[in-house]
């Protein structure tokens, strides 16, 4: 190939690259390269994750041994929050609140979607970069700013926001009601407003990129399921996050400018407040209009990642590709019309409860389809049990266990009695918390070579998975039972109720599992940072996968592919296809003349 | 001491990690000892067997939990009429869930074990089957349709109360940080109007004293209910969201400032009878054993022993409402209609109480401290921290 030909193959993105050199700042900090932004999201997400999980360990200790004092409380929380090693009761609620906020938004939304949508969308659809690299950079830095503001609220004298991650007013609106609703709540609202702006920019970028920048031959029905999941997730985000922003703005008005959107007839701290005519139930509607889709914003990318990893490591096509896409879309659609199942006993018209029971239980159908399709994909496979694969199978397991109890909570009649008990805590931690976390881990183990050009240590990965899997069940399975015994969540201690004395030993068991599981995450953290620098150098396609990201060079370059963009000739799941020597056929391999085309 | 303990735990954990990694390392010996960090046959074998072991672990966890903690105190022994229906639906759903859980987890983990990879094996190219997809869409759809219909039938019966036809007894439940107050509607069975703006002095529920319906309203600091009489609770909140949770009656409704919410049920068993049921006796005996053990420790440390526990129905707060959310409770007493009438007749109406208060004030015995409300809500005085 002559030099002239070679130059011709470079498109705009490549040529641009020749004109300026990357400085440290443009390469590592204000980068507009999607791969670098993905890594930035991941590392920020992991740091937030360590803080979020760490908080849960502290309040689990408080729940297991409410009468003890712990020096570690004093060391970590300070004299103000934990005098003499005894956690203040409003600080307990603050930790619960910030744990929820950090895990749901900062780790499992930004950390998961932000990382893998950014990394995989351009690489798997065959694009040079995101539609708008600049907006992508702004999106990350807004996320970073919102993380900093959220963490800064931990150092406020009156304490961080303490009204639960759902921040229901009036508790969240009135500093008289709980100290955390002062400066802490203000910072929470500012942080979340910035976070939403960041999330919207990211989502818009993902949608535009998937629609416009697919390479030649990459039709919508040849997209890997990861991309379908990220694409649909971005759409739900665009539909629902603005509603939370409006709720947050109205709450700011109520708090600071004396309006009465959510407040009415309140007597607190010895005086009647002026608010009249507002309704906290309105806030609940607005909050859950995001809040429920948010569950799927967290879960769908994890399911997309799992689909890809299970197919690759089973050396089998994902079973029911079209049904998988249909179920993603069905789940996404239904997720926007089920929010009322969080409000069966909120005081809204019981007729609405009937409607929401109906729509909620419908979600079980596409979810069942997904679960059975995963199981069928494993059937008669040639399973390569890499750590990423183990976490994916683990995800299917917790998705089933956690999802099934949704049948109880989604039924308004049964929800009356288990609403806001530990049954709910167990349910959502398994079905979205642990499942999405497994999706995150699976994605990291699988695409670490793509991100850092090195392999994670598999044995550390196995240890990490098995201990985490046992501890996750150990924590959340018994929790269903204390919930069914009527123990309410968000209690600082259960000692005020002798009725619950017989559940205390369960709380101790749960906490022990949580502490061990939490400690073993250090194995992962060590593996991650050690392998980043000293791991074994990765081959181009270590998992022998079909998708496009493995056709790009290991070393990251702007524009992803040195020459022309790859062309796609087939769907991504031609694993173990009869008539082929290898057990994988990359998407770039042209169809044989007598080969059957599965998806066009 | 604590720091030492933490240190010991940390050391133990690191030793455990080291040992576990070594086990996985050792399994490599005899294999092709590659350093590709990609699973080889050995890894597939070890992890395949572990997948099977994990299935056993899930089953054992389930069995242990069901045997040890599965008395399901809130799935049987309901103390209200509709509760029986709720419990039945709960049992049906639970059995269904356990069935599906057992089967699907078995398939998932068994396949992960059975089809663990081996060099040279080739997977089956099996990409689609509409029949299978139909089966696992339609079976859940039919099952769920059944559950939805049953659920909606029960929900409608519980939530829609025809007050004119059924004429239930009206009781107000009033929530505030951090306690409860009760107002009975009196002879006319109609609550007088109320709003927090009327709160003044001992009129701490904000009753509109000018309203004729309010004249016979009675305030109480304990919730007494007559057995066999349908009660509709009109629920208010003074400050933030609370939730009136009465688990033994399968009843819950949020308390929302600015609006009145409601929930209705018929208690079917008195407190005394409930205490006599074998399930409750066993539960209370177990709790008292735990408390006695704990008391020994407390006494040894020079602290006060815990009081023994007697069962009572409870009203507790189940919506995060502030720092003392964890101790916002009230005793509920269910008694015979006669006992209830007697108890209520000994109470004075709010109007009378205020009148006598004013009279006293005129006579110079000033006693207008509005904060002085005696709330006898807790079962056992607890000393926390």
* Largest sheet data of chain A: 2 strands, antiparallel
Main β-sheet, spatial strand arrangement of chain B:
3-2-1-5-8
CATH topology of the domain at 167-288 and 309-361 in chain B: Immunoglobulin-like
Q: How does the overall form of chain B come out from the CA principal axes?
A: elongated
Main sheet attributes: strand count, strand direction, barrel closure of chain B: 5 strands, mixed
The most extensive interface between chains reads:
A-B, 150 and 137 residues
Secondary-structure class of chain A: mainly alpha
Report, as a whole number of angstroms, the end-to-end distance of chain A.
Answer: 33 Å
Q: Which class of the domain at 167-288 and 309-361 in chain B in CATH terms?
A: Mainly Beta
Strand content of chain B: 5-15%
Low-confidence residue ranges of chain B: 367-385
The CATH architecture of the domain at 167-288 and 309-361 in chain B would be: Sandwich
Shape of chain A: globular
Helical segment count of chain B: 9
CATH H-level superfamily title of the domain at 167-288 and 309-361 in chain B: Cupredoxins -  blue copper proteins
Task: Produce a short descriptive summary.
Chain A: It comes from Flavobacterium lacus. The complex is a heterodimer of chains A (600) and B (385). With 600 residues, chain A is an all-alpha fold.
Labels describing this entry:
heterodimer, A: 600 residues, mainly alpha, Cytochrome C Oxidase, Chain A, two-stranded antiparallel sheet, 18 helices, 63% helix, disordered N terminus, B: 385 residues, alpha+beta, Immunoglobulin-like, five-stranded mixed beta sheet, 10 strands, elongated, disordered C terminus
């Amino acid at each position: 190939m002559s030099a002239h030909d070679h130059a011709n193959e470079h498109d705009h993105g490549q040529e641009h690259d020749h004109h300026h050199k990357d400085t440290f700042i443009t390469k590592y900090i204000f980068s507009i390269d999607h791969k670098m932004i993905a890594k930035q999201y991941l590392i920020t997400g992991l740091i937030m994750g360590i803080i979020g999980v760490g908080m849960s360990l502290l309040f689990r200790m408080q729940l297991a041994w409410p009468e003890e004092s712990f020096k570690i409380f004093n060391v970590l929380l300070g004299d103000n929050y934990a005098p003499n090693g005894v956690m203040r009761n409003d600080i307990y609620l603050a930790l619960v609140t910030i744990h929820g906020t950090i895990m749901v938004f900062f780790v499992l939304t930004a950390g998961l979607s932000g990382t893998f949508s950014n990394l995989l969308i351009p690489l798997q659809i065959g694009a040079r970069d995101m539609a708008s690299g600049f907006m992508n950079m702004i999106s990350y830095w807004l996320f970073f700013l919102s993380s900093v503001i959220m963490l800064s609220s931990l150092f406020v004298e009156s304490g961080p926001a303490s009204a639960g991650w759902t921040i229901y007013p009036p508790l969240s609106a009135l500093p008289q009601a709980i100290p955390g609703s002062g400066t802490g709540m203000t910072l929470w609202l500012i942080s979340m407003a910035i976070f939403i702006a960041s999330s919207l920019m990211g989502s818009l970028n993902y949608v535009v990129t998937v629609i416009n920048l697919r390479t030649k031959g990459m039709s919508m029905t040849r997209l890997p399921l990861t991309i379908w999941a990220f694409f649909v997730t971005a759409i739900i985000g665009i539909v629902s996050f603005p509603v939370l922003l409006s709720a947050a703005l109205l709450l700011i008005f109520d708090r600071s400018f004396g309006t009465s959107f959510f407040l009415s007839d309140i007597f607190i701290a010895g005086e009647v407040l002026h608010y009249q005519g507002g309704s906290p139930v309105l806030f609940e509607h607005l909050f859950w209009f995001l809040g429920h889709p948010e569950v799927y914003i967290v879960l769908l990318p994890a399911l997309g990642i799992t689909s890809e990893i299970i197919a690759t490591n089973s050396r089998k096509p994902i079973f029911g590709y079209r049904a998988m896409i249909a179920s993603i879309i069905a789940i996404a659609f239904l997720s926007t019309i089920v929010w009322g199942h969080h409000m069966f006993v909120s005081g809204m018209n019981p007729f609405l409860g009937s409607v929401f029971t109906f729509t909620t239980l419908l979600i079980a159908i596409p979810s069942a389809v997904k679960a059975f399709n995963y199981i069928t994909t494993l059937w008669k496979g040639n399973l390569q049990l890499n750590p990423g694969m183990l976490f994916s199978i683990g995800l299917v397991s917790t998705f089933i266990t956690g999802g099934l109890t949704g049948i109880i909570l989604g039924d308004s009649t049964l929800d009356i009695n288990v609403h806001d008990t530990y049954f709910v805590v167990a349910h959502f931690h398994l079905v979205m918390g642990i499942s999405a976390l497994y999706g995150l881990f699976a994605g990291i183990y699988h695409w670490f070579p793509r991100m850092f050009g090195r392999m994670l240590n598999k044995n550390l990965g196995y240890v990490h998975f098995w201990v985490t899997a046992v501890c996750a069940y150990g924590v959340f399975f018994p929790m269903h039972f204390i919930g069914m015994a009527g123990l309410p969540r968000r209690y600082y201690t259960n000692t005020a109720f002798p009725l619950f004395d017989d559940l205390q030993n369960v709380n101790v068991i749960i906490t022990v599992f949580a502490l061990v599981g939490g400690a073993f995450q250090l194995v992962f953290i060590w593996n991650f940072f050690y392998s980043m620098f000293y791991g074994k150098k990765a081959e181009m396609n270590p998992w022998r996968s079909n998708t496009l990201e493995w056709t790009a060079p290991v070393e990251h370059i702007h524009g992803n592919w040195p020459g022309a963009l790859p062309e796609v000739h087939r769907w991504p799941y031609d694993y173990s296809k009869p008539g082929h020597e290898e057990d994988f056929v990359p998407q770039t391999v042209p169809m044989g003349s007598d080969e059957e085309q599965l998806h066009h | 001491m604590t720091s030492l303990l933490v240190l010991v735990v940390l050391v133990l954990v690191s030793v455990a990690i080291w040992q576990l990694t070594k086990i996985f390392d050792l399994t490599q010996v005899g294999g092709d000892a590659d350093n590709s960090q990609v699973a080889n046959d050995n890894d597939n074998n070890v992890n395949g067997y572990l997948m099977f072991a994990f299935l056993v672990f899930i089953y054992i966890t389930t069995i242990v939990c069901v045997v040890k903690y599965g008395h399901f105190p809130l799935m049987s022994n309901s103390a209200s009429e509709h509760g029986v229906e709720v419990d039945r639906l709960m049992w049906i759903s639970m059995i269904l869930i356990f069935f599906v859980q057992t089967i699907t987890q078995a398939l998932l983990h068994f396949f992960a074990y059975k089809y663990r990879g081996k060099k040279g094996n080739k997977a089956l190219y099996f990409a689609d089957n509409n029949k299978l997809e139909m089966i696992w869409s339609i079976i859940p759809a039919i099952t769920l349709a059944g559950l939805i219909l049953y659920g909606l039938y029960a929900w409608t019966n519980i939530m829609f109360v025809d007050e004119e036809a059924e004429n239930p007894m009206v009781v107000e439940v009033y929530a505030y940080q951090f306690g409860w107050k009760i107002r009975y509607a009196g002879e006319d069975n109609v609550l007088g109007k109320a709003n927090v703006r009327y709160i003044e002095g001992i009129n701490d529920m904000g009753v509109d004293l000018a309203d004729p319906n309010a004249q016979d309203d009675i305030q109480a600091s304990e919730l007494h209910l007559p057995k066999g009489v349908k009660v509709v609770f009109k629920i208010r909140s003074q400050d933030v969201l609370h939730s009136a949770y009465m688990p033994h009656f399968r009843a819950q409704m949020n308390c929302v400032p600015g609006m009145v919410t409601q929930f209705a049920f018929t208690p079917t068993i008195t407190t005394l009878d409930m205490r006599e049921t074998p399930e409750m006796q066993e539960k209370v005996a177990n709790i008292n054993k735990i408390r006695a053990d704990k008391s020994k420790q407390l006494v040894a440390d020079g602290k006060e022993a815990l009081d023994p526990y007697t069962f009572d129905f409870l009203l507790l707060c189940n919506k995060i409402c502030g720092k003392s959310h964890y101790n916002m409770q009230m005793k509920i007493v269910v008694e015979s209609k006669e006992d209830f009438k007697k108890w209520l007749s000994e109470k004075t109406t709010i109007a009378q109480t205020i009148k006598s208060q004013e009279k006293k004030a005129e006579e110079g015995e000033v006693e207008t401290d509005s904060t002085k409300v005696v709330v006898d809500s807790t079962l056992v005085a607890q000393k926390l921290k």
